[in-house]
Design brief:
Shape: globular
Oligomer: single chain
CATH topology: Barwin-like endoglucanases
Structural class: mainly beta
Number of helices: 2
Length: about 130
C-alpha cells in the first residue's frame, strides 16, 4: 500500500504574472525551486489563498532571483497578480518510507525569496484514544 504524502510546499508566494496564452504550467524562480527541491516538470497543486481556487499543473524553471511566480495557460484565469498562493507537491510512499518521511516547507517573502524553512516528520507521536 502507498500513502500520498506532502513532500514539499512553498507557502504564501505572490503571483507576479498571469498569461493565458502561454503554454500551460507555473513558472517558479529557480532559487525557490532549489530551496525546496522541486524540479522542472514536477506536478504541483496550486492553492490561491485570496479566492480559494485550486488547480494542478507542472513546473517551469524561472530565472534565478527574478521572483517570478507566473501562472500560465488556462489556470491563469483562476488567479490574479498579487494573489498569495501555496504550491504543494506530493510523493507516493510505502508504509516503511512514511516512517522516515520528512516534508519541507519554505515560506516566501514579499519578493518570492525563501524567508523561512520548516521540516515536518510524518510520525504519529502517540496512539489515538
Amino acid at each position: 500500500m502507498f500513502r500520498k504524502m506532502m513532500r514539499a510546499k512553498i507557502h504564501r508566494a505572490t503571483v507576479t504574472q498571469c498569461d493565458p496564452d502561454y503554454v500551460g504550467s507555473i513558472t517558479i524562480d529557480a532559487n525557490l525551486l532549489a530551496a525546496i527541491n522541486i524540479r522542472p516538470n514536477e506536478s504541483v497543486h496550486v492553492l490561491d489563498i485570496d479566492n480559494g481556487a485550486r488547480f494542478e499543473t507542472y513546473v517551469f524553471r524561472g530565472e534565478p532571483g527574478s521572483g517570478i511566480i507566473g501562472i500560465n495557460g488556462a489556470a491563469a484565469r483562476l488567479v490574479e497578480p498579487g494573489h498569495k498562493v501555496i504550491i504543494v507537491t506530493y510523493a507516493m510512499l510505502t508504509e516503511e518510507e512514511v516512517e522516515n518521511h520528512i516534508s519541507q516547507t519554505v515560506i516566501a517573502d514579499d519578493q518570492n525569496r525563501p524567508a523561512e524553512t520548516y521540516s515536518y516528520n510524518s510520525l504519529i507521536e502517540a496512539p489515538c484514544p
